[in-house]
Amino acid sequence: MHGFPTETEAEAQMTIEFIKDIKWLHFVQLHNVRIFPGSLLEKIALENGVTREQIEESLTLPYHLIPTTIQLDKDFSRKIRLDFTKNYLFSKERLKYILSKQIEVCDEEELMYKYRTVFPTRINTLDDILKLARLTRDDVDLSKMKEEEPCTIRYPQPKEKKKLRKEGDSYKLLFLDITQFFSKDAAVEIRAVEPPLGHMAIVSYLNEQFGDKIEARICKSGVDFDSMEELHSILDMFGPDLIGVRTMTYYKKFFSLIIREIRKYGCKVPIIAGGPHPTIVPEQCLRENDIQIVSLGEGEKTWEEIIQKILDNDKRFLDEDMMYKIKGIAFLDGKDENKRE
Asked: Quick one: pLDDT at residue 184?
């Protein structure tokens, strides 16, 4: 991490030299420090000349761009990154060694997926990596290259249920993972898809607890819907009773855009938000977006309690008295005040 509020140029250079002395690190990134509201780092930054405006501005910048919260000279920061990339990441000596080891474990497609999570550059093949270091395949020992294995996944036949669920009998939950831009808008985004693990954990837990009483679906932006029109189709076809939305701080503007689009399209069901952005600034998130609850943690037990109360309430959404009894959420009460339990 580069650019801590109290860091000097000499200390930043010492960090880089320490990393460069460890010759055989396989995957390493130089990230610019991000300062999140409410964190200890924010307190330190404010005490050392960083403004709240700078912190807010930096939250939606990609990690490879230099935010104004970094107090070091911008030319120094660019120079240190260029030196690190050229003389360490794409060092011929280093790549010759680590590629020959990596290719024993990963086939080429798997390896390139990993590299795409590290570099904000278009990397599709092993030759793209080699070209950046001015190497060829003849320069690297690829004799132990792992061959791509055929897909061996087999899906078991679903067990026959004793009682079929009646149409419309289940409570429909739509989870939207807003952690990737639409393809047409992703000019600076690293195009490596991370699975919606947080929502997967919640849905798995809820399915175990409620069975056929609920029907849950997970959709990821940029993958399951890559435009507003595709989001509209999901809303029409699935017809959710409740929507859960997760996002990271980097996507906060995109998150707000999606919420506005859901409401503009006429979908009026309750929305519960979670993830780093809503959790860091729950009151701001609630006031600036048409959502009803912010889940302050990962949320399995919180979601269980919310859904149980909704089912007990004849599938009607929670009133304020019910919400006051649930720990781990934030909401705006009738007096427009933020409440947490």
From this structure: 82
pLDDT digits (tens, 9 = 90+) for 231-251: 999 999 999 999 999 998 889
Per-residue HEC secondary structure of the chain comes to CECCCCCCHHHHHHHHHHHHHCCCCCCCCCCECCCCCCCHHHHHHHHCCCCHHHHHHHCCCCCCCCCCCCCCCHHHHHHHHHHHHHHHHCCHHHHHHHHHHHHHHCCHHHHHHHHHCCCCCCCCCHHHHHHHCCCCHHHCCCCCCCCCCCCCCCCCCCCCCCCCCCCCCCEEEEEEEECCCCHHHCCCCCCCCCCCHHHHHHHHHHHHHHHHHEEEEEEEECCCECCHHHHHHHHHHHCCCEEEEEECHHHHHHHHHHHHHHHHCCCCCCEEEECHHHHHCHHHHHHHCCCCEEECCCCHHHHHHHHHHHHHCCCCCCCHHHHHCCCCEEEECCCCCEEEC
> What's the pLDDT tens digit per position in 182-209?
988 765 555 556 789 899 999 999 999 9
- For 341, residues 6+ apart whose C-beta sits below 8 A from its C-beta are 323, 324, 325, 326, 327, 328, 329
137 and 99 Cβ atoms separated by less than 8 Å? no
Q: For residue 40, what are its two tokens?
A: 């200890």
Distance CA 92, CA 101 (A): 14
pLDDT (tens digit per residue) in 284-310: 899 999 999 999 877 899 999 999 999
Residue labelled with tokens 């037990």: 301
Residue 312 CB contacts under 8 Å (≥ 6 apart), including other chains:
none
Angle 171-181-183 from CA coordinates, rounded to 5°: 115
